[in-house]
Amino acid sequence: xxxxxRLLLDSxxxxxxxxxxxxxxxxxxxxxxxxxxxxxxxxxWAKTLERDGIRPGEVVIxxxxxxxxxxxxxxxxxxxxxIPSIMPFLTEKLLPERYRADLSALVDIxxxxxxxxxxxxxPEVRAALPTDSSVRRVIxxxxxxxxxxxxxxxxxxxxxxxxxxxxxxxxxGTTGLQKGVAxxxxxxxxxxxxxSLALHINEEDVIVSWLPLYxxxxxxxxxxxPILRRIPLALLSPFDWVRSPVRLLQxxxxxxxxxxxxxxxxxxxxxxxxxxxxxxxxNLSTLRAVxxxxxxxxxxxxxxxxxxxxxxxxxASALCTCYAxxxxxxxxxxxxxxxxxxxxxxxxxxxxxxxAARPAVADRPSIKMVSAGPPIRNVQVKVxxxxxxxxxxxxxxxxxxxxxxxxxxxxxxxxxxxxxLMNGWFLTGDYGYMVGEQVFVAGRKKxxxxxxxxxxxxxxxxxLAMEVPGxxxxxxxxxxxxxxxxxxxxxxxxxxxxSEDQQERDAIGDAIRQIVTRGSAVALRHVYLVGxxxxxxTSSGKTARGANxxxxxxxxxxx
Amino acid sequence: MKEETIQKLGAHIASSVLKQPNRVIxxxxxxxxxxxxxxxxxxxxxxxxxxxxxxxxxDSELNKETFDNLEQLAALIEARAG
Lengths: 559, 82
What we know:
Chain A is an alpha/beta fold. Chain A has three domains: about 5-145 and about 160-320, 3-Layer(aba) Sandwich (Rossmann fold); about 340-445, Luciferase, Domain 3 (Luciferase, domain 3, Roll), CATH 2.30.38.10; about 450-555, 2-Layer Sandwich (GMP Synthetase, Chain A, domain 3), CATH 3.30.300.30. Chain A is built from 17 helices and 27 strands. In chain A, the strands form eight sheets. In chain A, strands 17, 18, 20, 21 and 22 form a five-stranded antiparallel β-sheet that branches. In chain A, strands 2-1-10-9 form a four-stranded mixed β-sheet, sandwiched between helices. Chain A has a four-stranded parallel β-sheet with strand order 4-3-5-6, sandwiched between helices. In chain A, a hairpin with a 2-residue loop joins strand 23 and strand 24. Chain A is globular and about 70 Å long. By secondary structure, chain B is an all-alpha fold. Chain B contains three helices and no strands. Chain B has helices spanning about 1-15, 40-55, 70-80. The radius of gyration of chain B is 11 Å and the shape is globular.
């Protein structure tokens, strides 16, 4: 079994002039990065970490914007044998105070030894660190060692063993930052091997990605898979894509892209928000697999995407699906490669009331479920009941998985690790069912909202909204409502207020929007203000999110 | 003319972005920096502006550097139409 550093340096030796990735940033010429250049860029960081006394096996948090610094620093940390983890950079939306609180939460649990950031951001980072913090060094990006006279092949990363932890993955939100998924070289490389087989990776393949590198889909499918396995990569910035979604399609045309990964909302976003005139030169005929991943997959979203882009060469067979999670490195299943994606039309009521996925019958409401495909090689999936007993086909239960690419642990969280594993099986927290080998995901156990592929915890949002004067403390509920047109969930907040005055209410509504957006970087779709005692609480005094969502939907049905 | 533009833009944002069709947004109310409009809605707004006011806008042209309230957005549209 090899390791990350060995594989990177193998490529450096075997094909130094091969382009490992091309970085596409708005307003700049495309920048091809060969393996030689990648290793040279990374080497500077490895040497800097060594200079600053960071040891192999220590954790380095990267707080850099999407771009070359981040790419080089990531690989430099690997070459040094240290453990990188990317923290999203502060966006203009988010309040610095809130960002600081998130960073403090991460430092508190993960206890990193080093943080890498920009000089102008260093005060912000330092302000987040307690006096007795684990962080020994904050390295800024313009204070690097020169790379001259460095023997990269002697880098300390070469000494890492396959079972050592190679990287940490944190998910979003204050709550999510408290669990760093620790992955070993072996786990990641096993995943890349199985996943490459599932995708039938070949010489013609080119990956195109706009996904952020702090997200498992972006990091694994859109960064490590291509670079470690020598598949050419065209890497766009998520910020550029969100402002101009056509860039993804232009990159597919220019680089003859064959593989891409998108969260469900991106299918709708691309289908609806791209102007005809921007598509003139676009040719999507090279695409052979666009995998829908990271949020609930919708048949309608695939259809909208296909209808819009078929005239530009998109093939129906390119529509694929994938069920993935950081705890398994990435992919659990992959659909749409060996056959078209299977659609299972089931009875809507049986799904909701009987926890059964029965084939639809005429004249009864039905729902089209999209298969996530069969498990990839080396991953086993089963559906279990609340006692951990396996359930038969078409019964809804919790999805559990076992593989050779699972997490080593939640870093410094033995309690969470213990809770998630059951006799070697990882309990995913997702509800679903199986039909033969096909896996269908039907919901989730936790009260979590997935908006645009990002996990959002309602509690985080509720706590923010309660800070607004005029809102009853403890009388706020947040939940997601699926928006057919957007292909993802809208975030809704219902809050109890005393004021009957419309102007005052508008001001409170605005204040809730502002505090939530700036405190979580999540834009609220609807703030619904209600009078006292509107909210439904459970007998133990907790807010019943499901019941309140039903009540909200009923009341607002006519809007 | 400008008042009419502001009124139309305000009504569009109130109904399609905020889901509060009766809401009146004042011309100097901060839209982007207040978190009322996010990046996804900006792409939407650009398409609406093109269709409604018959002006040509590039994808990333509407952002927090170019406007933050209805007054500024209307001025931008007028300059473009002129």
